[in-house]
Each structure stands twice: as structure tokens, then as C-alpha cells.
Specification:
Distance between the termini: 7 Å
Order of helices and strands: EEEEEEEEEEEEEEEEEEEEEEEEEHEEE
Strand content: over 45%
Shape: globular
Largest sheet: 4 strands, antiparallel
Radius of gyration: 18 Å
Number of helices: 1
Length: 303
């Protein structure tokens, strides 16, 4: 098995509040957003200065850039979504959706999917027409994963359940209790027929797509809540981040721990690590935290 070496490359500062979300723009550029309502564009080729793209009046938990449409979708908590032209830094549309928070946004070339604190899931077209919505829980819809080939949408909820929807109609296809408390992150494995979920219970679990989403593995991954799961481009590795202030690198085939990135060993984050983004550029990993900073990590495998 490969061993993993990690080296911190950059610390990016400028946000005025906790950072909650990251999303890729190009191979080397990405957006960050959080409690200050600022959406900032960073380029790893010249990372010293971020460029503010838009500022919304409330915090941002969910954000998604769609490459086919060349549009950034920003979720403004307690309000709705904003469509932004990145090149002109202009808002090109907005839609009021909720008086609660918007926890996650995922997009395809055809639609925008939104998960809200009211437990509602929306499917919206690019003209900002609501095509379908489903409210199957009084507790928050926290995380969305889209599997376009299977026409499936997995959503993790604070009522401990994962619900699988048809991406065309939002008809419910499957629901099951996944964890003992809130499901904070869901991700489809890029190489295996597996859905991964992570929870406030500090565990991640694997669910078999070819066997009606039966659980195939459970791992105690962190000391406290796991906030996010992210895969590397090769699909060989994935990373988790936690309220325990650490990032962990895992083998994506055997699901074994390979590396812990933390403050003591790597000058990691001082508070909860909320989101991860594994960039194509130099295979660098980006993390953001309640400490208002973004860290950029070089992750190297040694055979």
C-alpha cells in the first residue's frame, strides 16, 4: 500500500467569518464562502490574493459552479439562490426559496438541486422555475449527491435518514435510517458501486448500490462530527474533515486510514474543518474552517 506524505503549501486569509463551503471553478481556481456572505475566487497559480465575486446579505453554506452553463449558484441562507456570471461579477437571477438555511446545492447541465433547513429538496431549472419539490422530513436536508447515470439523487437528513430520489421527478425511490444522528455528507464513490455517508456521530458508512443500499462497512473515522467527504481525481483516495479540527486521508478501496493532518503535526486548522476540495492542479487539497482560513495541502503518495 502507498504511504502518504503531506506538506502545507499555502494559508489563504481575508474572510471575516467562519468558512463553510468550497467549489471548483477551473483546474486551478476555486470559490470560497461562509459566514461573511462573501464569495471569493482564488487561483492556486497565484494564491496570495482572492477576488471577491459577489457578496450576499447572509451566510453561505451551499454553492455550486456549473461548467456547462458557466454559472455560479450561491445559496443565501434564510432566503434563496442567486445565479452569478463569474466573468462580469453580476447577478443574473435569483429565486426566494426558504426562510431557513440552504445546506447544499448541486447542479447538472439540466437542473439545480437544493437542500434546505426545512427538510425540503428542490429541483429547479436554469430559468429559475421550480420543476419539483419534496418535503419528507421536518428536519434539515443536509447534503446532496447526484448520480446522473443511475438518475438518482441521494440526500442526507438530520432525522438520521438517507433518501434516494429519482432525478427526473424527485419521486422517492428508497429511504433508510443511516446513522444515529444527523447525516452531514453523502458522496457516490467514483470507482465503486457505493454511496458513502458521514455523520455527526463521527462515523462514515458504505452502502451497496447493487444490493438495495445495504450497508457493507462502518468506520469510526474521527473523534467528533464528520463534516464532509471528498474524493481525489484518481479515485484511489478520499479525505474526511471533522469538528475535531483534523483532516484524514483514506484508501478508497480498503477504506483504511493513511494519514492524519492536524495542527500539531502539520500546522493544520485551529477549529472545525468544514469543507474539502481536491483540486486537479498539482493534486492539491484545499480545506476551510471556522478559523476563517483556507489551507492548501500537497498530498503525495510514495510507493
Amino acid at each position: 500500500m502507498s504511504s502518504i506524505q503531506v506538506k502545507k503549501q499555502h494559508t489563504l486569509t481575508g474572510h471575516k467569518d467562519s468558512l463553510y463551503t468550497l467549489c471548483a471553478y477551473t483546474d486551478s481556481a476555486f470559490f470560497s464562502a461562509g459566514g461573511d456572505g462573501m464569495v471569493v475566487l482564488w487561483d492556486l497559480k497565484s494564491p496570495d490574493t482572492g477576488k471577491m465575486i459577489v457578496k450576499v446579505p447572509a451566510s453561505v453554506y451551499g454553492m455550486s459552479y456549473n461548467k456547462e452553463r458557466d454559472i455560479l449558484v450561491v445559496g443565501q441562507n434564510f432566503s434563496g439562490i442567486h445565479l452569478v456570471d463569474v466573468n462580469t461579477k453580476k447577478e443574473i437571477g435569483s429565486l426566494a426559496l426558504t426562510t431557513k438555511v440552504i445546506f447544499d446545492i448541486q447542479t447538472t447541465s439540466e437542473a439545480i438541486f437544493v437542500a434546505t433547513g426545512e427538510g425540503e429538496v428542490f429541483k429547479i431549472d436554469w430559468d429559475l422555475q421550480i420543476l419539483a419539490s419534496k418535503k419528507l422530513s421536518v428536519e434539515s436536508a443536509r447534503s446532496i449527491a447526484v448520480y446522473e447515470e443511475r438518475k438518482e439523487l441521494a440526500v442526507g437528513f438530520s432525522d438520521h435518514h438517507i433518501r434516494i430520489f429519482d432525478t427526473e421527478s424527485l419521486q422517492l425511490k428508497k429511504e433508510f435510517k443511516a446513522h444515529e444522528i444527523s447525516v452531514f455528507s453523502v458522496r457516490y464513490h467514483p470507482q465503486l458501486p457505493v454511496l458513502m455517508s458521514a455523520s455527526r456521530d463521527a462515523r462514515f458508512k458504505l452502502w451497496d448500490l447493487d444490493n438495495d443500499y445495504q450497508m457493507v462497512e462502518e468506520v469510526v473515522g474521527h473523534m467528533y462530527a464528520i463534516n464532509h467527504i471528498e474524493f481525489g481525481e484518481s479515485g484511489k483516495y478520499f479525505v474526511t474533515c471533522s469538528m475535531d479540527k483534523s483532516i484524514k486521508v483514506w484508501d478508497a478501496t480498503e477504506f483504511k486510514l493513511l494519514k492524519v493532518i492536524d495542527k500539531a503535526r502539520h500546522a493544520g486548522h485551529a477549529t472545525s474543518v468544514n469543507k474539502l476540495l481536491w483540486m486537479n492542479y498539482r493534486n492539491w487539497l484545499v480545506s476551510c474552517s471556522d478559523d476563517r482560513t483556507i489551507s492548501v495541502w500537497e498530498v503525495l503518495s510514495e510507493h
